[in-house]
Specification:
Layout lengths: L1 E9 L2 H8 L9 E11 L4 H4 L2 E8 L2 E9 L6 E10 L13 H5 L7 E17 L2 E14 L2 E14 L3 H11 L5 E2 L4 H8 L20 H25 L3 H20 L8 H28 L5 H21 L2 H16 L9 H5 L2 H19 L8 H21 L6 H36 L17 H17 L6
Antiparallel strand pairs: 1-5, 1-8, 1-9, 2-3, 2-6, 3-4, 4-5, 6-7, 7-8
Length: 486
């Protein structure tokens, strides 16, 4: 078994052609046509376990590869790998592989599910005392009658430190508009087996009970980056309200992670990243505000058309931002910092970083819950700004609960976790409705639309007093809930 450490970059076809012909690389050490078949059980048990099984043909050679993803990987693909030559297109799933232990009697049911065909250009690069295999793959993934294009650079560390992968990536990024890649070819194939998704929601953060607090932050932040990039990819292709909403959720979760894990984080990079994430979130937020207003406006009236024009302009600003070097660099820099940054080795933070994640989570969730309790005591009589602070505190508590939920397993805790989140969601829904009421006039006034006929009717769907009462009831319900981490 080997350990593969790889950084993936995605780019468009024109940029790939320009890169292959640039001064950054010599003539490829090799050019191969590669065809791979991926296998799984009928119920996709391997995929559910984070395992991929393929047989790849390159020339006359057939190679079987099994990869197991590392759940902590944030941008870097750090995976355990089993590889062997085989004589045919039938997988070998004996005790030389982890498949029998994983699948038991179902090991014999694995069958082809999708294929990958790419042209691979490969270079061996000596870079800053490291040896890196650099490959450019162009082709497609196919499952049935559906296809997904592949155009990506893979930087695999053969010798040296992971930081050199990012150094080389930045050199490439200075010449070609590359983005951080977070989807493997096997994930592309499995996506083709499912209905087309309009947006990608939050995925569960899987944390080991033996994880340190530092491990937890890396995993949480990596999960947020992944959710953002999945939705960013959709937004770069089309203006989609749900993808924009989920991309904004990912950024909010990431900003909350910086706040929740603040006791662990040190260095000048932290304020920079928080500032850049706030800026990007505000760009998406302007478009999101208009999506919310449009959902309440009546089609056909002048106000609706004005909102459509404003929304289109906001989405154009989103596209400009997402297409910028600034955003591409932010995601690459942030991932490098997570994996190789000095925060992981800061002597002043050593004890906090090495503390058990479970201990850190319990103490943090207790503080976050107490903050919600303190700020929400007088919801019915609070001003809009005060209720907004309760909303932010509740949101941070919910994100923290979702970040740390896997650290507290067990049937009883799972029930408490579900009820706790449900109560939090109810409170957030009511506080969110109140926030929409409070911010809508500001948004409309900024656009010069507050005096348009029908503008005030956008706020008249529910009486404010009823929403405040519902929020107070949800707050009381949350306060009565037993914690899942105690």
């Amino acid at each position: 078994m080997a350990q593969e450490v790889e950084l993936k970059l995605v780019l468009d076809a024109a940029s790939a052609n320009a890169f292959a012909g640039s001064d950054l690389v010599d003539r490829p050490a090799s050019t191969r046509q590669m065809h791979a078949v991926y296998f799984d059980t009928p119920d996709l048990a391997l995929s559910k376990a984070g395992v991929s099984l393929r047989i790849r043909r390159s020339g006359d050679m057939l190679t079987q590869t099994i990869k197991v993803a590392d759940a902590k990987a944030a941008g870097l693909f750090a995976r355990s790998e089993w590889e062997m030559e085989v004589s045919g297109m039938i997988p070998v799933v004996d005790d030389r592989t982890p498949i029998p232990a994983l699948l038991g009697d179902d090991a014999g049911t694995v069958a082809p599910i999708f294929t990958v065909a790419v042209e691979r250009l490969m270079w061996m690069v000596d870079y800053d005392e490291a040896s890196i295999e650099l490959v450019l793959d162009r082709g497609y993934v196919a499952a049935g009658d559906r296809q997904s294009p592949v155009c990506e650079l893979e930087l695999e560390l053969k010798r040296g430190e992971p930081a050199t992968l990012f150094a080389l990536a930045k050199t490439i990024a200075a010449h070609s508009p590359v983005r951080l890649g977070i989807v493997t070819k096997s994930e592309r194939g499995y996506a083709l087996l499912r209905p087309i998704s309009r947006a990608c929601k939050t995925e569960r953060v899987a944390l080991s009970r033996t994880a340190s607090a530092a491990d937890a932050f890396e995993a949480v932040a990596g999960s947020c980056i992944r959710q953002y990039r999945l939705n960013e990819t959709i937004l770069l292709d089309q203006a989609d309200a749900e993808a924009l909403h989920q991309a904004r959720v990912a950024l909010r979760r990431l900003r909350s992670a910086f706040s929740i894990f603040k006791p662990l984080l040190d260095g000048d990079e932290v304020p920079h990243f928080r500032s850049e994430l706030r800026w990007l979130g505000s760009v998406l937020g302007e478009a999101r505000d208009l999506d919310v207003l449009l959902a309440k406006a009546k089609p056909g009236v002048a106000l609706f058309q004005d909102l459509i024009r404003a929304r289109d302009a906001a989405y154009a600003a989103v596209d400009t931002a997402l297409s910028s070097d600034r955003v591409r660099a932010l995601l690459l820099d942030l991932t490098e910092w997570l994996v190789c940054g000095a925060w992981r080795t800061a002597p002043s933070m050593r004890d906090a970083l090495d503390a058990p994640a479970r201990q850190f989570a319990a103490e943090t969730l207790h503080k976050l819950r107490r903050r919600v309790g303190k700020r929400g005591r007088s919801l019915p009589t609070q001003a809009d700004e005060e209720r907004h602070e309760v909303r932010k505190a509740a949101k941070r508590l919910r994100y923290g609960a979702e970040f740390f939920g896997s650290l507290f397993p067990g049937t009883k805790r799972a029930r408490r976790y579900g009820k706790f989140l449900k109560s939090l969601e109810k409170l957030q829904d009511q506080l969110g409705a109140l926030n929409d009421m409070a911010t809508a006039p500001t948004v409309l006034d900024r656009l010069g639309l507050w005096d348009e006929p029908g503008a005030r009717s956008l706020l008249a769907h529910r009486k404010k007093s009823k929403i405040i009462d519902a929020a107070a009831e949800a707050y009381d319900d949350l306060q009565d809930r037993k914690t899942f981490w105690g």
